[in-house]
Amino acid sequence: MQIRLERPEDAATIRALTDAAFEGMPFSHQTEAKVIDALRAAGALILSLVATEDGETIGHVAFSPVRINGEAGDWYGLGPVSVWPDRQRRGIGQALIREGLQRLRSLGAGGCVLLGAPAYYGRFGFENDPDLYNVGAPSRAFQRLSLDGSRPSGEVSFHPAFDVS
Ligand SMILES: CC(C)(COP(=O)(O)OP(=O)(O)OC[C@H]1O[C@@H](n2cnc3c(N)ncnc32)[C@H](O)[C@@H]1OP(=O)(O)O)[C@@H](O)C(=O)NCCC(=O)NCCS
Description:
This protein has helices at about 10-20, 30-40, 90-105, 120, and strands at about 1-5, 45-55, 55-70, 70-85, 110-115, 130-135, 140-145, 155. It is an alpha+beta fold. Strand 4, helix 3 and strand 5 (about 110-115) form a beta-alpha-beta unit. Helix 1 (about 10-20) runs antiparallel to helix 2 (about 30-40). The longest helix is centred in the middle third of the chain and has 15 residues, at about 90-105.
């Protein structure tokens, strides 16, 4: 498996992969692929990685800037992250996330936030911090990982591209 930055020709595959991964997920409104397209169109897809095997794209993860208390800074949101349903639970998602976090560190990011299952994201060091919250999100599902030791507090907002429906 290799992990590399997305290329322009990957967009359609990322869309199909994301739709397939989130299909039928009870927490999903099946808008994740549109969110990725909207982030890309807005120039906000600051890090988009694909995992490939024998030339086939098997997984994808997106990162975009978030605001804390309305201020732009150096914290980022992780997601959507997707692996083809028949390739899940073989370490592809973990490899993509670890590579993405490493690259964020190299970019000098302060930290990363996400909405997701604590049982999955805890392994990367993500945890809920009551002082850093996302309005409307179940508190345990909103998690943060500091990459530079900073502990910001307040309200986090994802990029407006996440509001697509
Ligand atoms: C979530 C996802 C990206 C993980 O990628 P993956 O390659 O399947 O997962 P990995 O092989 O890296 O990790 C597997 C581990 O994660 C666990 N896991 C996977 N999804 C989980 C979830 N939603 N909640 C809790 N644990 C989960 C598995 O039980 C397994 O645990 P183990 O290592 O203790 O056996 C992938 O399953 C996927 O595309 N899911 C559908 C879309 C989705 O839910 N995206 C994330 C939304 S927050």
